[in-house]
Amino acid sequence: MAEPTRFGIGEPPASGTPPEPVDVPWIDVHQHTQSLSWNDRERFDLAGCRAAVMIAAGYYWAPYRPVRAADVRFLWDDALRRGAAFDHRHFYEQYVAVGVHTWAGVTDVEELLAVLPEYCAHDRVVAVGETGIESTHHTTAFPLEEQRDVVREQFAIAREAGLPVLVHTPGSSKGDVDPRHARRYEEGNRNFTAPLLPTEGTKREAVEMDVELAEEAGLADEQVVIDHADDTVREFVMENTGCHLAYSVSAPWLRGVDARDVAAAIEAHGSDRILVDTDLIGAMEHDPFVMKRTILDLLALGVPREAVRAVVYENPRRVLGLE
Ligand SMILES: [Zn+2]
Asked: Is residue 274 assigned to a domain?
């Protein structure tokens, strides 16, 4: 993949023709909107946002004691209430994803699973999640067997509701955050439980488990979005499953993923099942223009305009059922 073209100051573009206007709309399937500010949401309006999905059980919300079902239920209700406040004051549609995040062990989780179908029927709820097998947790560990049951059950609920699932996959965001970056991430502390999966190949192992659980629940691959993608899971997902693969492009300094990874994935596998999302969150240094910048970078890298439009707009729209 070629490096982005850089023009010298005052020099015309190499082709001699001015670039086409960048009017590519976008939909963000994964962001923690409630942790952002009005200014950030206005920037979504300015940058061509058509819709955004707020993850109701905010992972930035680091519990200081074991999490109870009522705590999570509060976050779900809060997200739904805020969603209405957001899109009535901005120019994009604010949707919500509801689910039991595996960020921390949750007591009485059955209470949540019992009411989740009711939440899925809400007009504003367009996805289940984020959820998925996680290796390390805040405050209280979530044993793997319990996680399996909770994730599988949410896949089954999504199947019944006809909703996609945003599958969180373990990343580099926990425990030993690079000391150079630690101050840019407020939750990047050492308040985490010991990993339940081997520290090498964690993401790949978790993704294989998630795919297996989706199969057990009878959830169609097209309804599964494997999120926070990187090179360690790309080939497995694209060649062995029919799932979607989403790249979370905020905080490249933490995740090590940017437009070049998305371009490489499109080049290798086509644009049909690739998505770009932001995972924007107020607890770390963030760029509310990251989606627009990624669109510009993809175009500069030579990715065809239709493919760019597919990964930031058409695919998210189809997966969320917003067509
Ligand atoms: Zn996540």
From this structure: yes
- The Cα 313–Cα 158 span in angstroms is 22
DSSP-assigned letters across all residues of 105-136: -EETHHHHHHHHHHHHTSTTEEEEEEE---S-
Task: Output 62 or 184, whichever has higher pLDDT.
Answer: 184
Burial class (CB in 10 A: 0-12, 13-18, 19+), 208: middle
Predicted confidence at residue 63, as pLDDT, reads 62
* Structural domain contains residue 2: no
Structural domains of the chain, count: 1
Ligand 1 centroid, distance to 137 Cα (angstroms): 12
In a domain, 8, yes or no: no
**pTM of the predicted model as reported, rounded to 2 decimal places:** 0.92
- CATH code, domain carrying 264: 3.20.20.140
Ligand 1 midpoint to CA 150 (Å) = 16
Query: Within a domain: residue 88?
Result: yes
For 170-304, where are the alpha helices, taking DSSP H only? 202-217, 231-240, 252-255, 259-269, 290-300
Average pLDDT, the chain: 91
- Residue 314 CA to residue 1 CA, distance in Å, equals 23
Nearest-CA neighbor of 174 among 60, 287, 54?
A: 60
Calculate the dihedral angle through the C-alpha atoms of 37, 42, 44, 49, rounding to the nearest 10 degrees: 130
Ligand 1 centre from 130 Cα, in Å?
6
Q: What's the domain range around 254?
A: 26-319
